[in-house]
Amino acid sequence: MISLTSRDFLDMQIEEFIISSEKVAHVQVGNSAEHALLVLTKTGYSSIPVLDSKYRLKGLVSTQMITDSILGLDHIEYERLPDLKVDLVMQMAPIIHITEKFKKGLDLLINHPFLCVIDDEETFLGILTRRIVLKQLKKHIYLNS
Ligand code: AMP
Hints:
Elements: H1 4-10, E1 19-20, E2 27-28, H2 33-43, E3 47-51, E4 57-62, H3 63-69, H4 86-89, E5 95-97, H5 102-108, E6 114-118, E7 124-129, H6 130-143
Parallel strand pairs: 2-3, 5-6
Antiparallel strand pairs: 1-7, 3-4, 6-7
């Protein structure tokens, strides 16, 4: 059921719900896959953004992407990790522009646990997570039921 309040809710800017970039664990292009694996393991996150030196978003790297890339015929070639750059391992990140509305975030988060938030210059501003959006949705549903 779409009520007037739901419409207002879905039209809210995502900006107020993002986790800002300084609180987001990330790696830089040029870092080794070993470093990325260390950050992923220590933080417990399944994937993290890859940024360049100007804080522009370049991709996403996950533990699975790293292990996939060092998978040999009969063993995982861990010895390759220090020389392997994240640039060769990362994949495209799901993105959303900072000026987008809550509804767009909700739609995209069906297929991704989080979205990378960028501006016109592709500067990384933070992330919008499925957890935060679901929490807001729950609050809204309970308030209006
Ligand atoms: P959560 O909604 O907290 O379960 O987070 C879902 C995913 O978003 C995590 O597995 C990470 O990939 C990413 N994530 C959440 N918070 C952070 C953060 N502070 N730094 C880096 N990645 C994060």
